[in-house]
């Protein structure tokens, strides 16, 4: 049974921290593939971000460095709100025999009970969470505690052992705006950014 990880994010821009975590998930969970899922353009227009086609292209460039990494535009091409539950359902249909892992951060895990149809979501896939500074399972709210008590011993929840790299997307965008370069971005991605003059006037 193939094991496939689904790793969503804004990826604005994708950087070495994202790639480190993606590879760590693949290593610890023995994943055949980690599918990077850049988020679509915000339909409510309140959160500015780099256009989806650029973020998708940067993710595709970055993924070429590791054969286990792939990229999907699943969350970009859908109209309106994109719920993780629906994304997982789409991949469940594409890979009915696969063991699907949803790859998220600890901060997101602690908010899982607020997600759209979260209880059905956790029946459709397994969850793996990467550490986040200031977030740990001891902070889990009551609605999650009974699920956590079952999911951990059943192997349906994995807490990543690898530590994240101390890299901030907002700091990288600031660096790109002022210095037009960053050591935290793969050279090929940096080349794309410079070619298309992205982040030239973005401070955050």
From TrEMBL:
Keywords: ATP-binding, NAD, Nucleotide-binding, Nucleotidyltransferase, Pyridine nucleotide biosynthesis, Transferase. Pfam families: CTP_transf_like (PF01467). It catalyses: nicotinate beta-D-ribonucleotide + ATP + H(+) = deamido-NAD(+) + diphosphate. Pathway: Cofactor biosynthesis; NAD(+) biosynthesis; deamido-NAD(+) from nicotinate D-ribonucleotide: step 1/1. Its EC number is 2.7.7.18. Residues 6-174 form the Cytidyltransferase-like domain. Transmembrane segments: none annotated. GO terms for biological process: NAD+ biosynthetic process. One of its GO terms (molecular function) is ATP binding. It comes from the Bacteria. Belongs to the NadD family. Catalyzes the reversible adenylation of nicotinate mononucleotide (NaMN) to nicotinic acid adenine dinucleotide (NaAD). This is Probable nicotinate-nucleotide adenylyltransferase. It comes from Eikenella corrodens.
């Amino acid at each position: 049974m193939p094991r496939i990880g689904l790793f969503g994010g804004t990826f604005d821009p994708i950087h070495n921290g994202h790639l480190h975590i993606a590879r760590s998930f693949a290593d610890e969970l023995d994943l055949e593939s980690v599918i990077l899922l850049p988020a679509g353009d915000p339909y409510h227009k309140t959160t500015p971000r780099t256009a989806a086609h650029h973020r998708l292209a940067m993710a595709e460039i970055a993924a070429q460095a590791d054969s286990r990494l792939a990229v999907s535009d699943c969350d970009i091409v859908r109209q309106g709100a994109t719920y993780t539950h629906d994304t997982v359902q789409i991949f469940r249909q594409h890979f009915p025999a696969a063991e699907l892992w949803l790859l998220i951060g600890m901060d997101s895990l602690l908010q899982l009970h607020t997600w759209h149809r979260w209880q059905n979501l956790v029946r459709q896939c397994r969850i793996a969470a990467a550490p986040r500074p200031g977030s740990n399972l001891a902070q889990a709210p009551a609605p999650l505690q009974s699920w956590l008590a079952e999911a951990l011993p059943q192997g349906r929840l994995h807490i990543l052992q690898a530590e994240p790299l101390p890299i901030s997307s907002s700091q990288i965008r600031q660096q790109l705006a002022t210095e037009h370069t960053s050591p935290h971005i793969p050279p090929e991605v940096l080349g794309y950014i410079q070619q298309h003059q992205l982040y030239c006037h973005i401070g955050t």
